[in-house]
Write a structure and sequence with these properties.
Shape of chain B: globular
Radius of gyration of chain A: 19 Å
Oligomer: heterodimer
Helix content of chain B: 10-25%
Largest sheet of chain A: 5 strands, mixed
Structural class of chain A: alpha/beta
Distance between the termini of chain A: 49 Å
Order of helices and strands of chain A: HHEEHEHEEHH
Number of strands of chain A: 5
Strand content of chain B: 25-35%
Number of helices of chain A: 6
Strand order of the largest sheet of chain B: 2-3-4-6-5
Number of strands of chain B: 9
Helix content of chain A: 25-40%
Shape of chain A: globular
């Protein structure tokens, strides 16, 4: 039994390796280096410092959306050198203005977006960003948590992960349930803040 | 490894190799190939630069015909210009409203919803195009050919929206596009740009429109 399991493990490893080697070169060419801010290859800008504050836009306040965002911010605090907290009153120095809209505002199949609203420097340091979530697409806690993690990542300079791999995290774009940052992305953050 | 297990192993290899294990491994049609460009043309870079600072989490759709099914209007046309759009109140009292930008596009071909663009022009909102003015957008993007998959923009009644009718002539409908649904042809006519995905691929605009085959590889 033990040998069989070991063989299965070897087989799966071999299969994955062989299948990967069979990938067409075109697809290999689509992989990008994982850059870290500012503004290159779909990364966000850098945040202004290690303290990352947030607020809820009062105009669209939807209480049930708070938990996933708070949990994603708490995760950033716990897993990196950044410091977050509970939502505060929005002002121009708040790092993330968080809000919720529908597809008829954000666009077709856009789960969430982040936009820098105050550029502090031309080199790509953002003083304050809007983070908007799509209530039409993010129907579960896990959906909201993943996209919160994803957009928060952009606000500190992370770029999209290009393909689903064994180390994929919330920076992959689309309908996935990764709600965490991988060690590579944590290292990026900790190297800066 | 015994022979039974070897057979199973080979079968599994062939099966996984056949399915590619992941979607990335599907074999593309050789007549339809595109490459994500890490060093795009100057005009592609111009287009991208106008949307820097905006990042999206997007469900990508594999082919243009799928996009068509989910949108009301699908057109190809020329970007005429940009104007100050609607104001959105974020953050409550005491904070400045944020502006969206409205893009005017002269329609050259309607794939779907032709009856909704009878005036030959569509007005499309880019939500919170922060950091870039309509003047800068006009300088960089006017005259480009683009493709758009559109749904009707939210109107009055959306919390935070201060002036639902701004950004276009009175009575004109306002449309909204997403990240995969706004496609631009670069000036060399050999590259296709998805500005809000920060993605440039080799190809022609027509290939990303209904009946085409080109979709973005994100990231």
């Amino acid at each position: 039994m033990g040998d069989s399991m070991k063989s299965v493990k070897i087989c799966v490893t071999l299969c994955v390796a062989l299948a990967a080697s069979a990938l067409p070169s075109q697809n290999l060419m689509t992989a990008r280096a994982d850059v870290f801010g500012p503004y290159s290859a779909d990364s966000g800008p850098f945040a202004d410092n290690y303290i990352h504050t947030w607020c809820e836009g009062l105009a669209n306040y939807i209480p049930i959306w708070r938990d996933s965002m708070q949990d994603a911010m708490d995760y950033l605090d716990a897993q990196t050198d950044m410091t977050t907290g509970s939502p505060q009153t929005c002002n121009n120095s708040t790092d993330i203005w968080y809000d919720v809209y529908g597809s008829d505002v954000l666009g077709f199949y856009v789960r969430g977006l982040s936009v820098c609203r105050i550029d502090l420097t031309s080199e790509g340091v953002c003083g304050s960003a809007v983070l908007a979530m799509n209530r039409d697409l993010l129907t579960t806690y896990m959906d909201r948590r993943k996209t919160s993690c994803h957009e928060i990542g952009h606000t500190v300079g992370l770029a999209h992960s290009s393909q689903v791999t064994s180390t994929s995290d919330c920076m992959i774009s689309g309908n996935y349930t990764f709600t965490f940052l991988n060690s590579h992305h944590k290292d990026h953050i900790n190297s800066r803040y | 490894m015994n022979s039974k297990f070897a057979t199973a192993t080979i079968s599994l290899i062939l099966m996984l190799g056949g399915t590619g294990c992941t979607q990335q491994a599907s074999v593309p049609d050789a007549s339809h190939s595109s490459t994500v460009l890490s060093d795009p043309s100057a005009s592609s870079r111009d287009v991208l630069s106008m949307f820097r600072g905006t990042s999206n989490d997007v469900d990508l759709v594999d082919d243009p015909d799928q996009l068509t099914a989910g949108n009301e209007v699908v057109i190809q046309g020329e970007i005429v210009g940009f104007a100050r759009g609607r104001e959105w109140q974020f953050g409550g009292a005491g904070t400045e409203p944020l502006l969206s930008t409205v893009m005017e596009v002269r329609v050259t071909k309607a794939f779907k919803g032709a009856d909704k663009v009878t005036g030959g022009t569509v007005y499309v909102e880019h939500f919170l195009a922060a950091g870039v003015t309509p003047g800068e957008l006009n300088t960089k993007l006017a005259g480009y050919q683009c493709g758009l998959y559109l749904i009707k923009a939210a109107g009055w009644g959306v919390p935070g929206l201060l002036d639902a009718t701004a950004g276009r002539p009175e009575g004109e409908p306002l449309w909204v596009t997403g990240a995969q649904t706004f496609v631009v042809q670069d000036k060399t006519e050999s590259e296709v740009v998805w500005p809000r995905l920060d993605t440039v691929q080799s190809g022609r605009l027509e290939d990303a429109m209904p009946g085409g085959w080109l979709s973005p590889e994100n990231g």
